[in-house]
Amino acid sequence: MRTVWIALGLLILILLASSGLYWYTSMLYRQLQDSLDRLYKAVETESWSQADREVRGLEEIWARADDAWTPIMDHRQVDLLDESLTRVFTLVELRQKEELLLQLAVSRRLARRLKDMEVPGIGNIF
Questions:
Q1: Which residue in 5, 12, 38, 104 is deepest, having the highest Cβ count within 10 Å?
Q2: Which domains does the chain have, with CATH numbers?
Q3: pLDDT tens digits, one per residue of 76-92
């Protein structure tokens, strides 16, 4: 009977840890997408001072997300998003609106794909 309680306790602990990790990654994803959306709007209106502020915030969010996602998610997808965001940061400095808007769209798509791959579901298991 004691073994059953230990196994049940471990199962509950694993479920709680998984739920907490899923919640945290979802929160980081929302912050990342919101920051990318704000940056996109700032660039569209050519508000470069606002874009500079948004990039600084995006760099902080990405640093936290990268630290959290790298150990648990597909490294190739995380690396692709990292490369895309690096291009975004550089294009803001260069003030290249058209290329920057394109790269922001790519970054948003990569982040969405990364998040969708981590949602628990039958399609992700098999």
A1: 104
A2: 19-119 (1.20.120)
A3: 989 999 999 999 999 99
